[in-house]
Each structure stands twice: as C-alpha cells, then as structure tokens.
Task: inverse folding
C-alpha cells in the first residue's frame, strides 16, 4: 500500500505548493491597498484645489493672511513625501510609468510651492504700499503740498488697476507714474516716498501677475489625472493577471480534490473487499434492511427473512410456499406489478409492486448460479410518493426563470431545473444524488449555515445571499430562498431552494454606490439631462444651491433656472460649442427658486453613445456668489463712502469727467454744487462723533431727496458734499435746487432725542463756463462756497471771475505773507492801557502791523485770517510774543513798569503754542508771567471743548492772565465764562462808540460792567475816542481804558516818546 | 477725508490678518517628556558641553541672550539663534527656511561645527550607554534609539512650546480691556504703515519669505563685509533674486528679544522698528509712533509655564 500511495503523495505535495504560491500571488494585489491609493489620489486632488484657491485669493488680495495656505502646503507636502517614499506601500504598487508620473507630479508641486512663495511676497509688498500710500498722501495734504491732488489721483489709479488689472490701463499707469516722477516739485520726503512706492508698486503688480500666470500654467491637476489613469490601467492589468491566477488556483484545487477523492475511493474498495469476506452470509440474511427470499431451482422457498414475512402478511405456511403459489396469492390479494412476472425463472427481473393498501415495493429477482431465484423487496412507498409529487412540481419548475433545486433533509440533491443547470454549469446528472455542498465556495462564514439550518429546522423559510462556485470554478453570488417541503404527515421531507444569480447586480450596485457617494457628497451641483435637455437627476448640492428639490426639477427644462440676464445669442453659442466640441464652461447667471439671481461657474459635458449621438448632458456648477460679492464689495469700497453710501471723491471725479464730455458733445449745461454744513463741528464737539456721523447720514438722505435720480450726490470729505446736476435747463434750475437744499437742511434734525438746527453754505459753478476741467470746476465751486459762508450762513453763491480774482489776490498775499517775517515787513505796534480813575498808563497792548512792499500797510483784519488759514499764524504769533516780551522787558528795565497784552489765536494751539513754549519765551526775555495778558476771542470759547479749556488753564496755571477781546460781538452766554480761567473782559469798540448816542448801548455797557464785577473780572473799554466816553465809562465803574483818545497804536520808539510827554488824564 | 475713505476700503487688506494663537493637538506625554529631556541633554554635542537649551533659553525667550551663540569649543555662530517658542507654526525652519519641518531642523545644529559639532553615530552610542534613557526610548518607539526617533521626540517637545493667552489675543477675542489705548494706537499704526502685510497670521510672521530691505539695500548701507549668512534664502535656492531674502520672523517673541534681525544688528525693539521703517518703507517714523508700535508688539507676547514672567524680566532690564 505505501508503494501505491507514493505517487499520490508526491502529486499532493506539488499541488498544495502550487496552490499556496498562487494564493500569495493573488493576495499581493490587495483591494484594500488599491482603495487606499484611490483615496490618496482623491486627497491630493482636494488639497491641490484648496491650495489653488488660497493662492489665487492671495494673488487677488482677498486673502491677507497666509496661515491657511501654509497649513495646506504642509499637508500636501507631507502627503506627497509619504507617497513618493520608495519603500512605502503606495510607491510599491506603482508601475514604471506611474512612478515617473508621480515624480513629475512632485516636481510640479515643488514648482508650484516655489511660485506661491513669490506670489505671497509680491502680494504682501503690494498690500504694504496700498496701506501706506494713503498716509503719504495725507501727509502731503496736511502740508498743503501742490502735488497732493495729483498724487491722490495717481493712487486711486493704482487702486483701480489692482482691482481690475487691465493691460491697457497698465500702459497709461506707467506713463502717469513716469510723468509724476519726472515732475516732482521739490524734495518733500513724503512726495519722494510716494513716487518710489508708486513706481515699485507697479513693478510688484507686474511681477505678481507674471507669477500668477506661471502658477496657473502648472497643471498639477492634469498631471494627477494622467497619474491616476496610468495607475488605473496598471491596476486593471494586474487584476486581469490576478483573475488568471485565481482560475489556475481553482483548477488546481479541483485537481487536488479529484486526487483526494481517488485515494479515498481506492481505500474504500480495499476495505470493502475484506469486510465482505467476513460478513457476507450474515448480511445476506439477517442484516438486510430489505425483504429477502431465496427460491431454489424448483421454485421452492428455501430462505427468507423476517421482513419478507411482514411485507407479504397474507402469505401463510411459508415453509411450504413456492414461487408460483406466491405469485398467485399475491394476485389474489390484489398486488399489481409494473411488469408481467414469468413463472419460469429464467431471467433476472426488476419491477415495482403495489399492494392494495398503497405500499410500493421495488422488486428485484435474480437468478442464482444454481438456477434458483434470489428475491429482494425494498419498500419504496415514501420515495414513490415523493417522486410523484416532485414530478408534478418538476413540470411546473422546468420552465421557471428562477433556478430551483430540491434536496432531501440531508441536503442530497434530488431535483434541479434547467435554469439551475445553466447557472451552475453542471448538468442535471452531475448534481442529482450529490450533496448540495458541491456548490459551496468556502468563502461564506460557517455561522451563516448554522443560522440557515436553524431557521429551516424550525420549518421557516430562509433567504439570503450566498457566494457559490460554478462547475468551472468561478464564483458567483446568488440570492437564495430555501423553504421546507412537508409530506402528508406534515413532517419535513425536502427543501426547495430558489436561486438567482446576482453577481452582476452586486457589481453594478457596488459601482453605483461609489458613483452615488461622489455624486451626493460633491460640493458642486451636478445636473444630468437627457438628450432632449430635460433634467433627469440632480444631486444634493444642486438642491442646496438652487433651492429646488430633485422632484421639482425632474423632467423640466433647465431653462427654468435661467435668470434672463443672458440673451438668446449667449445660449445659442453655448449650444453650438457643446454640440461641436462636446463641452462648454463659463460663468453664467441663474435664478434660484426664491427668485434671487446668482453667478455660477458652469461646465457642461455631453455624453455620447457608440454612434456618437448625444445621450446625456452632465452639468457641474458651483455658486460663486460669495466670490463675486467679495469682489463687488472691494469695488464698492473704493468708490463709495462707507458712512453715507454716497459716491466718494474718486467716483465723483470720474462722473464729473464723463459729464463734462457728454455735456460738451450734446450741448448741455451741468452744474456743480459744493455744499458745506454750517455748525457741523459744533454738533460733533458737543454730541460726539457718533451723532456727528448720524447727522451726516441724515443730511445725505435729505440731499438725495432734493435731486433727480440721475444726478450725483457725493460726499467730498468731512462735512462737505458735492452735487452734480446733469443736463439742466439754465442757471435758474441750479438756483432752485440750491434754495431747496438750503431750505431742507435748515429744517431741524432729530439727534440724541433733541432737535438740532444746522444750515449749509453752497457754492455753484456751471459748465460751460469758466472752466472745463473737473478739478477747476470743483475748486471754483469750493471758492464760491467759501464766499457764501463769508457773507453769512445759509446762503449760496455762484462762482464768478471776481471771486477768482479775489482768490488770486488772496493767494498772492499768502505767498507774500510767507516771506514777510523773513523780510522784516512785520512790526509790533503798542497802544497804552490806561487806569480810568488815575489816568496812569499801566500796560500796553501789542498789535501786529504788516508793511507790504506794494500794498503799503495791510490792516490785521485782512491778513490775520489768512495767517490762521495757512498756519502762518504759528511762527508769526510766536514772533509777536517774543518781540513784545523783549521790548516791554527792556522798558521795565528802564524803570517803566507796564504789563503786556498780546492777542493769540485758537489756531496757535495746534501749531505748537503751549505752556512750555510760552514759558521758554518768557524765560528768554526774562518777562514775568503774571505781567502778561493773553487776549483771546469769544469765538474760541464757543468751541467749549475740554482741550481748549485745558489749554487756557495751562497758561493760567503759569500765572499768565487771560482776557476776552471784542467782548459782546460773539454769541457767548455769560454763564459760559465761568468755565474758563478768564481774568479780563475787553468791551468791544462798537458799544463804546455808540454808548454816548444810544442809550441801549449804554445800558448794555452798564450791564456788562456789573456782570464783570460779579464775576470778579477786570474790565477794559476799547476804542475810547472822546473825553465824553472816558467820563461816562469812569462813572459806570469801568477800570481800564484804551483808545485813540489817549494814543493810537504806534511803533515802540514813538511810544516811549509819547509816554514821556503824556500827562495823566483823570 | 478722501484718504480716510481709502483707509476704510484698505482696511480689507489689514483686517483679520492677525489671527489668535490656535491650540495645537495634544501629543503623547511620554514622547513629549522624552523630547524635553533630550532638549536639555548635552550628550547631543561633541564634547558634552552644549544642549539645545544652551542657546535656546526657555525661561528667557527661547533664544540666546548673546548676539551670536557660542557652540562647542567656544566657536561663535554666524547668525542669531531664533526663538524655539512658536516655531511649530512657521512654514519652514531656520532664517533661510532650509528645513521643511522641526524634525529635519534637528540635523542642522547637531552637525554644525560651530554649534554641537557632533554626528548621529556618536550621539546614539552615548545614549545607548545610559540604561534609563534607553528604556524610555523603548517605551515610546518600537526600534529604540535612532536618529529618526530623536528627531521625532525633539519635534514633539517643541510643538508644546507655544505662547498663549497674550493680551492681543484676548483683545482679538473681544476683551476690550486687554490692550492699553497706546497699544490700540500702535496696532492701528502697525496696520496703516503696512507692517501687517508681512507680519500676519497667528504667528504675526513666519509664514512667508521677504527681502531684508525692499526699498534700500540694507547690506550696502550696513557697510560691512557681506557674509555667507547674509545671502539668506539664496543659499538654499541658488536663485539670484533670493539674495538677502529671509523668512519673515514671528513677532510673538519680539518683545522678549535682546537682539533683532538675523545679524543681531539691532539691540532694542525700538531700533528694530526704526530699521524696518527705513528699509521696508523708506521713512523715518515719529518717536511717538515708534513707542506706540513697540507697545503693540509687547501685547503680542503670550505666556508659557517655562517662561519666567516675561514682562517683569523686560521691565527689570529697562
């Protein structure tokens, strides 16, 4: 026997080795790793597109911090490094071509990273300049630099280019910047810095755009796509190999099974031979489960078992029974046979017997060697009944489209229909009598079968999916339903299984599940339309973006989404592109269910059948509203005032320019109204900036209501507004509007729960008129406004040539005044202050005079306001203080003790005059602080701000006295005075001159004097010209006097002469 | 008024550019603690004299009090040691960004002959003689003491060196009392001068590269011999445009620094601001603006348990 087994053993070992090798081979291409790889591709694609988005946001200036970009860059670098690692699982699964592509991809990413760094740098430099340039322009503006407006315009041009980079504009910009650079008026540091910034900004912009284009040219996306395709085809190839391996594996397995079966059979035969020898006789008689009888050659019954007797209970006296009598008796008792039984025993016969009580026996009569008969009867009643039933069932099942298999309770197959044969590849004969295990794949868990048997034994139907194996070894999924069949007594006799091959369905479902997951989770809306363009299916993102549910759009034409913003030509050219090239993409405006219109980026691809006919159209789009809005917001901010939402200065200038062109072409008249609010500063200072802002908003609304929709109302700056009236009939129309505006703005505003009354001064210019240049038009209107303001509030004024002249004169005077100090044209005059009751001179007021080379002596009221406007009052005021202190101190040293009174302007506060600078002046001239009086105007008190009070208080704290000049002309309420550290009042000359002729004024002077006393203020009467006035003032109790009656203001040297000659007038 | 309007529109270039310091994911404690030990371990240097902490003083500012660090055998470094605090946020490591992350950064100082002057072979050999540290490595890593694992542990520890809860972060998150009015003014100036264009993000810098002296040639004016280190990123990319380009440093630790810039050419925050204004903007700033911006930069400094009350230190020095 060992010799017999050896070849089998060798074959067995060989087969098993081959099996193991093949098994490992098929394992090496793991599905999990494949899925992982696909997942990595997906991650790469997602990260890459996020990174692209970030980079473009940075390049367009929308993103101003780089953390997000850096984070994404780190993620993608880590991922790429992991994928490209030579020993990594990912890399191992790639073929030569794919790994080359992966290296290319990594290089492209590195290149992208490199370019991104440049983009980041230039975007930062541009931001830096855009943030910094307004400071420079403001600086120029503060210094009233002549090129301030030019620089502002250049800056706005740069902004515009940054927002809307148009190459044609770029050329203009280069010219503008060059022009600006070559026309620098002087070396103002802010101006040179501005020119440098503007120049650099342009080159940065240029670099940025170049790098951005370079960035866009690196197509990591298509590289990744080729990598994926290459990998996918490699994988497919390997999968096919793996399939072949699997097939070989199966064949080998079958070979193995056959070998084992062969060995088993041989062993069994050997066993049987020895067994038979031992138990032949005993089995023949006693142990037979069948009924057995042996007749000799004479037909006489020689041997039978117990079962024979029970099978034929009517046979008595068996010992004397012979073959023929048995047949006779059987017939007599109604036994029928399927064949005629010959009485002569010369042949072997097989047939069926049916007893009258319904039992079926299978009969087999065999000739023995000696010529007798060995008769065997098997009770096949049950089997026969089942067969009958199955035959009936079988006929019904034969044509069934489902595969059907019937087994006995042990699982042995008793019936299959043709469909099952088709499904499994086995012929009916090959399966009948076999255990149904033959179909098992071995891939299903044992627990499934345990559960299945439990269900079946309980008599219930089991349904489930099984992975089975065909005759050719291939696996297939079937959906199986197994039900028990019961016999007449109700016990389970068979199982019927109905099967359906669902392998394809499962594959398709798997595919569908993956596609559906992508479809449903995509952030981009996907819409699939049929060949007629009717919507078949949409995804969740579609529902989210459009607001329509899938049910609402199914079967509809996508035109239901159209916004009406595009014309027929647009859609026709879209369809034409789609039909000729198979795809179209672009930006399109659509309408949501709620009616709102939004922009989307749409890509449409046509799907074709084999004949090239379009079968479906796949549209993918994303809502780009947010991006659009962000762009629009930036655009809006550049052209509109954030507070009032009115057009700002930039937009106004643009529109004015256009309006001038239009008016010129169409022979129309336009008018520019320059509006300045009266008392706005007062509101701002008393109520605070919040209410100041609120007031501006309300004013903006009223202004907009005063004009037509087509006119432009702009906020020019601060409390200045400009209205541009297009195409008006005449000057009269502009007048009416100006009057209307003044009326409307004079009506009370409600702010902080109270009513505030302001007003407005308006300057108007017309085109055609003195100028055709926007800047000059505006400047003229401004000039006219200024004039209107000077003539009183709530007025308007047209620009005229004389205004221009005045302005020119003023300008010339301004330039002269700048030089006056250096050229020694300024001089301090002195006028005595006399104590009323003694007539003694106790002090002098220093008064500034200007000896103009051509105009002669210019009075202070002509040039002091100019000095205040231009800021020259700073150095001039300081010079007056220094000169007067030195002069008066000189006199004091000569023994003439006088106090000194000097006028100061509120503007000097902002121009550097404060306690410490005053202290320095006093120290330098050794002048005692308490002998100095600073005269201020009532107007300064009206300001009433804490800073003004603190400023005055700081002088008072030094011991310097403060006087109010021209008291009585302003608006100051007396109660105001308490808030200020005031020591003296100077009654305005108007009252004094009228006092002796007008009793009202005399009463007023009396009232002022008594009020001053009660507030413990010293009082000086200005403009005393007659002795009558002197006497009256003395009698009313006025302490000090000043005026021509004593002496007019004179230069220092004359003053000393006068004083020497002066006799005190009592 | 036009310009304040422009400023409104420009605010979009400056708003939300600085982000609050985010929280980093927590790392396994044994790994971090191992990194901590290694950070202070002098066996990483050739002659067992220098550890990471020698030049990155965690109690002070995570950097050196000297303008240039001193390595093995008294060798003097060529570039200012940057702070290890908040370094995890940076887009790359070193002034010239030659290391892409904290792990690969480790090899720099280890091999540099003027820093630790050592090599992995001898470091691993020294550490393997120490059973206790060997045991700690084995507890964290499957393969015990390797160069990779040392890098990993050091990087993990450095990722915990994040300064948090700075006054400015609190202010960003809505606590209006967190900044003084001077600091708020400083922030406004920081934005309107455009400093915020490069110094942005959570680390107020560290996420981009820029040229030292975008308007004037800093190195020409510096007047000294231009060293290899002065070439900056050019040393990494070889691109001539990258001469004098450096990683924009984070300002989160600036208020703690004794020296500024890669060449330690400024020794006070105010000096550094003056230099920046001159070379990046081409302007001289008013004294008051410098003081305000410095005050704002102080508000960027957060706290860390290892840092010994930074503000007090600084005040004492002043």
Result:
């Amino acid at each position: 026997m060992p010799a017999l087994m050896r070849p089998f053993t060798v074959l067995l070992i060989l087969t098993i080795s081959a099996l193991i090798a093949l098994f490992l081979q098929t394992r090496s291409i793991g599905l999990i790793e494949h899925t992982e790889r696909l997942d990595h591709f997906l991650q790469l694609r997602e990260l890459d597109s996020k990174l692209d988005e970030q980079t473009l946001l940075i390049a367009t200036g929308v993103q101003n911090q780089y953390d997000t970009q850096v984070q994404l860059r780190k993620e993608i670098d880590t991922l790429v490094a992991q994928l490209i690692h030579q020993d990594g699982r990912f890399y191992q699964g790639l073929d030569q071509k794919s790994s080359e592509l992966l290296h290319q991809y990594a290089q492209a990413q590195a290149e992208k990273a490199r370019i991104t760094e440049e983009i980041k740098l230039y975007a930062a430099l541009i931001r830096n300049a855009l943030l910094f340039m307004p400071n420079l322009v403001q600086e120029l503006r503060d210094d009233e630099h002549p090129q301030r407006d030019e620089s502002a315009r250049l800056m706005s041009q740069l902004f515009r280019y940054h927002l809307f980079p148009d190459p044609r504009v770029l050329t203009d910009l280069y010219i503008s910047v060059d022009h600006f650079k070559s026309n620098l008026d002087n070396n103002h540091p802010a101006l040179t810095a501005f020119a440098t910034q503007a120049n650099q900004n342009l080159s940065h912009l240029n670099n940025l755009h170049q790098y951005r284009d370079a960035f866009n040219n690196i197509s990591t996306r298509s590289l990744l796509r080729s990598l994926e395709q290459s990998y996918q085809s490699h994988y497919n190839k390997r999968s096919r190999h793996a399939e072949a391996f699997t097939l070989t594996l199966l064949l080998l397995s079958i070979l193995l099974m056959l070998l084992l079966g062969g060995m088993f059979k041989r062993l069994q035969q050997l066993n049987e031979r020895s067994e038979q020898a031992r138990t032949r006789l005993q089995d023949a008689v006693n142990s037979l489960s069948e009924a057995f009888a042996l007749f000799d050659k004479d037909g006489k019954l020689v041997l039978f078992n117990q079962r024979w007797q029970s099978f034929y209970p009517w046979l008595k006296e068996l010992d004397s029974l012979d073959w023929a009598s048995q047949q006779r008796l059987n017939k007599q008792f109604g036994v029928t046979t399927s064949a005629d039984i010959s009485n002569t025993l010369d042949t072997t016969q097989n047939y069926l017997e049916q007893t009258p009580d319904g039992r079926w026996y299978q009969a087999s009569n065999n000739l023995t060697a000696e010529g007798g008969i060995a008769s065997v009867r098997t009770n096949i009643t049950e089997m026969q009944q089942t067969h009958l039933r199955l035959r009936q069932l079988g006929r019904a099942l034969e044509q069934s489209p489902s595969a059907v298999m019937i087994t006995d309770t042990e699982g042995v197959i008793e019936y299959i229909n043709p469909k099952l044969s088709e499904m499994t590849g086995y012929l009916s004969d090959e399966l009948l009598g076999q255990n149904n295990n033959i179909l098992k794949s071995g891939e299903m868990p044992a627990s499934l079968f345990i559960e299945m048997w439990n269900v079946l034994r309980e008599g219930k139907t089991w349904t489930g999916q099984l992975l089975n194996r065909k005759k050719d070894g291939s696996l297939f999924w079937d959906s199986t339903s197994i039900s028990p069949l019961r016999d007449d007594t109700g016990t389970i006799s068979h199982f019927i299984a109905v099967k359906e091959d669902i392998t394809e369905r499962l594959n398709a479902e798997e595919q569908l599940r993956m596609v559906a997951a992508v479809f449903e989770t995509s952030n981009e809306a996907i819409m699939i339309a049929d060949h007629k363009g009717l919507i078949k299916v949409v995804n969740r993102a579609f529902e989210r973006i459009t607001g329509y549910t899938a049910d609402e759009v199914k079967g509809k034409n996508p035109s239901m989404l159209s916004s009406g913003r595009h014309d027929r030509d647009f859609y026709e050219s879209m369809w034409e592109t789609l039909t000729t090239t198979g795809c179209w993409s672009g930006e399109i405006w659509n309408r949501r269910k709620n009616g709102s219109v939004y922009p989307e980026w749409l890509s449409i691809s046509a799907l074709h059948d084999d004949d090239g006919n379009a079968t479906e159209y796949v549209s993918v789009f994303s809502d780009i509203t947010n991006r659009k809005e962000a762009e629009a917001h930036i655009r809006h901010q550049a052209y509109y005032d954030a507070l009032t939402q009115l057009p700002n200065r930039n937009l106004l200038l643009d529109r004015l320019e256009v309006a001038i062109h239009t008016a010129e072409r169409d022979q129309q008249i336009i008018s520019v109204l320059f509006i300045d609010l009266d008392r706005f500063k007062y509101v701002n200072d008393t109520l605070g900036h919040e209410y100041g802002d609120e007031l501006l908003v309300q004013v903006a609304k009223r202004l907009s209501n005063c004009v037509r929709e087509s006119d432009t109302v702009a906020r020019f700056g601060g409390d200045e507004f400009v209205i541009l009236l297009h195409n008006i009939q005449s000057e009269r129309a502009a007048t009416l509007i100006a009057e209307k505006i003044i009326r409307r703005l004079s009506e009370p505003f409600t702010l902080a729960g109270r009513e505030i009354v302001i007003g407005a001064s308006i300057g108007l210019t017309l085109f055609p008129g003195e100028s055709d240049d926007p800047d000059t038009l505006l400047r003229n209107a401004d000039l006219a406004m200024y004039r209107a303001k000077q003539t009183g509030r709530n007025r308007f004024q047209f620009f005229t040539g004389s205004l221009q002249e005045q302005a020119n004169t003023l300008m010339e005077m301004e330039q002269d005044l700048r030089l006056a100090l250096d050229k020694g044209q300024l001089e301090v005059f002195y006028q005595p202050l006399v104590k009323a009751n003694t007539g003694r001179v106790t002090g002098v007021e220093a008064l500034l005079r200007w000896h103009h080379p051509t105009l002669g002596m210019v009075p202070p009221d002509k040039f002091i306001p100019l000095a205040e406007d231009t800021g020259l009052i700073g150095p001039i005021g300081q010079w007056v203080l220094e000169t007067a202190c030195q002069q008066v101190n000189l006199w004091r040293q000569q023994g003439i003790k006088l106090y000194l009174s000097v006028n100061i302007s509120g503007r000097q506060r902002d121009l550097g005059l404060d306690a410490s600078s005053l202290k320095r002046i006093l120290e330098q001239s050794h002048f005692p602080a308490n002998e100095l009086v600073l005269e201020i105007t009532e107007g300064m008190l009206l300001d009433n701000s804490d800073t003004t009070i603190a400023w005055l208080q700081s002088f008072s704290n030094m011991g310097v006295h403060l006087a109010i000049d021209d008291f009585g002309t302003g608006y100051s309420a007396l109660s105001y005075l308490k808030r200020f550290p005031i020591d003296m009042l100077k009654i305005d000359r108007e009252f004094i001159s009228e006092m002796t002729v007008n009793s009202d004024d005399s009463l007023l002077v009396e009232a002022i004097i008594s009020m001053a006393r009660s507030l413990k203020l010293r009082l000086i009467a200005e403009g005393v010209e007659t002795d009558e006035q002197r006497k009256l003032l003395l009698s009313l109790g006025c302490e000090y006097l000043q005026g021509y009656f004593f002496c007019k203001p004179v230069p220092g040297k004359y003053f000393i002469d006068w004083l020497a000659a002066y006799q005190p007038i009592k | 008024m036009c310009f304040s309007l422009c400023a409104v529109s420009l605010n979009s270039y400056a708003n939300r550019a600085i982000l609050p310091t985010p929280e980093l994911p927590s790392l396994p404690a044994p790994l971090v603690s191992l990194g901590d030990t290694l950070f202070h371990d002098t066996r990483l240097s050739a002659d067992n004299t220098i550890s990471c902490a020698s030049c990155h003083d965690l109690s002070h500012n995570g950097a050196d009090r000297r303008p240039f660090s001193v390595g093995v055998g008294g060798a003097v470094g060529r570039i200012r040691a940057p702070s290890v605090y908040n370094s995890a946020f940076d887009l790359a490591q070193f002034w010239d960004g030659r290391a892409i992350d904290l792990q690969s950064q480790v090899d720099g100082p280890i091999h540099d002959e003027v820093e630790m002057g050592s090599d992995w072979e001898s470091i691993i050999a020294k550490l393997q003689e120490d059973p206790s540290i060997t045991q700690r490595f084995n507890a964290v890593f499957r393969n015990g003491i390797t160069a990779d694992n040392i890098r990993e542990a050091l990087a993990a520890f450095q990722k915990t060196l994040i300064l948090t809860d700075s006054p400015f972060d609190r202010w960003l998150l809505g606590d209006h009392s967190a900044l003084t009015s001077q600091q708020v003014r400083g922030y406004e100036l920081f934005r309107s001068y455009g400093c915020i264009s490069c110094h942005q993000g959570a680390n107020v810098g560290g996420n981009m590269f820029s040229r030292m002296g975008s308007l004037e040639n800093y190195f020409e004016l510096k007047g000294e011999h231009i060293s290899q280190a002065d070439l900056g990123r050019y040393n990494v990319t070889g691109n001539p445009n990258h001469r004098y380009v450096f990683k924009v440093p984070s300002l989160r630790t600036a208020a703690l620094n004794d020296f500024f810039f890669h060449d330690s050419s400024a020794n006070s925050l105010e000096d550094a601001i003056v230099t920046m204004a001159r070379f990046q903007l081409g302007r001289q700033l008013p004294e008051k603006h410098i003081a305000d911006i410095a005050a704002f930069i102080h508000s960027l400094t957060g706290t860390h348990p290892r840092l010994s009350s930074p503000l007090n230190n600084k005040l004492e020095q002043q």
